[in-house]
Each structure stands twice: as structure tokens, then as C-alpha cells.
Design goal:
The protein is of the alpha+beta class. The protein has six helices and two strands, in the order αααααββα. It is globular, with a radius of gyration of 16 Å.
């Protein structure tokens, strides 16, 4: 039977908590325990919150999008501006549920995301 990424992540047994992992997110612990691969985790998280998963190596970044965000924000917040669509900046991030990060990015570029 073929499972979607979300089904695979949800079906994985919770990994044991080792010292130093108590405040680590469950998804990260699953990856470290090799219960799920990182791509499946990110696909599942995107599916869960309604955000598309993008393989950056397969994506052509628009120079105008890259210019919309200061380089220090890109580095510090671990985001990558991908394109502009109808006045909105589309960014890739390792944590699309991090509202504080997205607010900071929105403030920095003065655009909707």
C-alpha cells in the first residue's frame, strides 16, 4: 500500500527522547531516529498546514524576488525568496508554521507573503 508523506509520518512510532532532545520537535526526532526521511517530513508538514513543498534544486529563483529581501534577513531567518506573484513575495522556509519568522520577513520586505 502507498502512503502519503503525512500518513507515513503519523504512522511512525514516536522516537524515544534522549538527553538533549527534550525540547526538540517530534519531526526532527523522527528524522534523527531514521523513522522518516527529511523530505517526507517536510512534505507531510506542508500537506498538514496547506503549504506546498518545493525542492529548491528544481526551482528557478526570480532575481526580483531575491532583491526584495535583504541578504542578512535571508541568512538569519533561513528563508529564500522564490518569486513575486500579484505583489506577494513567495518564500521557501524550513518552518512555514513559524509565525514570528514570517512576520519579521513581511516587515523586512514590506510585502505580503
Amino acid at each position: 500500500m502507498h502512503h502519503t508523506g503525512l500518513q507515513r509520518v503519523l504512522a511512525a512510532p514516536p522516537p524515544p527522547v534522549n538527553s538533549g532532545q527534550s525540547d526538540m520537535k517530534v519531526g526532527r526526532r523522527l528524522v534523527l531516529a531514521r523513522e522518516v526521511d527529511e523530505e517526507s517530513l517536510y512534505r507531510a508538514l506542508g500537506e498538514q498546514i496547506g503549504v506546498p513543498y518545493v525542492r529548491l534544486g528544481d526551482f528557478a529563483v526570480e532575481p526580483t524576488a531575491l532583491a526584495a529581501l535583504p541578504a542578512h534577513v535571508v541568512r538569519e531567518q533561513r528563508v529564500l525568496p522564490l518569486m513575486l506573484i500579484n505583489g506577494r513575495l513567495v518564500v521557501a522556509t524550513d518552518d512555514p508554521a513559524d509565525s514570528e519568522k514570517l512576520s519579521l520577513v513581511r516587515f523586512s520586505c514590506q510585502m505580503l507573503l
